[in-house]
Amino acid sequence: MKITNIDVIVTCPGRNYVAIKIHTDSPGLYGVGDATLNGRELSVAAALRDHMIPLLIGRDPDQVEDIWQMLFRGAYWRGGPVLMTALAAIDMALWDIKGKRAGMPVYSLLGGRTRTGALAYTHAGGQNFTEVEDSVRRAIAKGFKVVRAQVAIPGNVGTYGIGGSSLAGAAQWTNQPAEWGDGGPLPQVEKWEPSAYMRTIPALFDHLRSTIGFDTELFHDVHERLTPIQAARLGRDLEPHRILFLEDPIRPEHKESFRLIRNHTLTPLAMGELFHSRWDCLPLLTEQLIDYIRCDIGHTGGITEAKKIAAIAESFHIQTAWHGPGDIGPATHAANVHLDIALANFGVQEMVFFSDQVHEVFPGAPVFENGMLNVSDAPGLGVDIHEDAAAKYPYQRAYLPTTRRADGSVHDW
Ligand code: KDG
Ligand code: MG
């Protein structure tokens, strides 16, 4: 069997997505992959079209590992979000083809089902503690057993994640207008200061635990904004609230900084959405510095790399919590769930409810029921792409917000 051609499809059904379709010389057999990198969509599309796709025409789509190695090591230049997102898309589409050829869902190829579904979490947020409490209660009423909680920080502008909306395509960060440059909208600029944040988050969880109780798992995403000692302090202050984990407490570059946090708190830690390979994860896994590894499969080279990361994590008692926001496409969400229901050391899965427009373009996303996500038994990943529908929604340039401190200096968003 041979790869005959690969389409790159850029579409904006509410937000931008990039998808690929790998065609084969077997009539009607193709694979679908997600190549979406929020705010850098066209860079990934160019890497695919200009550099990777020409290398793949005529190759045997069965050779997933060999193609992965060729595109990663064989290219000499390797790693980083753009190339690893492009590689992930190809990898996912090849697994999709493999499953369709075998007549099996991808989770069967990964070893088969180990659980009835993937425990899922959603996002709750609000301007104040009561709004967050209401948002958590709505999530519980929908069936969620695990909820992430974020609240507006007094004095800050445009706090991350407080929209509380898990509807992909909904503008999640609309509390500040985007600036306009000559070429169209530029990023929103948010303002963030640590001391109010450090006081507010433990108070939020005081409120939530005293109103909601301890039966629902709650946790918080710091979004890489603290220094290690601030993160250690926050982790310690949150110990009485028994959160599931503190997500992404520090920026991703110096992994060994987690030693300091770990030495000071029993609050479980999660990290990974800004990692791009298993080597980024290694120090955190081998030194047992975190409890949940939450790489984005769509930015880390796909299923082939994720199963290796999960295997290393399993050896060190670390569970998976793959990144699953609205800014990655349904094929990555499906890949997440295929892994979740096959892996021994799955922990929890982030999810969103896609809009009708997204379902129109990409039918077959995982389904949420009773607190869990599941995929169908359709062969492959189970996600398709309707090109006619995609063509109705042309790409629109968009940026993630940026963050500055009160003195105007750049901080991590
Ligand atoms: O594009 C950025 C988002 O993927 C990220 O902000 C979402 O932190 C995130 C999360 O945990 O879902
Ligand atoms: Mg996050």
Question: What do these coordinates show?
Answer:
With about 425 residues, the protein is an alpha/beta fold. It folds into 2 domains: about 5-105, Enolase-like, domain 1; about 120-380 and about 390-395, Enolase-like C-terminal domain (TIM Barrel). The chain is built from 13 helices and 20 strands. The longest helix is centred in the N-terminal third of the chain and has 23 residues, at about 80-100. It starts with a strand and ends with a strand. Bound molecules: 2-keto-3-deoxygluconate and magnesium ion (MG). Magnesium ion (MG) binds next to loops.
CATH architect. name of the largest domain: Alpha-Beta Barrel
Q: Please identify which CATH superfamily of the largest domain we are dealing with.
A: Enolase-like C-terminal domain
Give the number of helices: 13
* Class from secondary-structure proportions: alpha/beta
Low-confidence stretches: 169-176
The domain count comes to: 2
Secondary structure: number of strands: 20
Strand fraction: 15-25%
Helix content: 25-40%
Annotated CATH topology of the largest domain: TIM Barrel
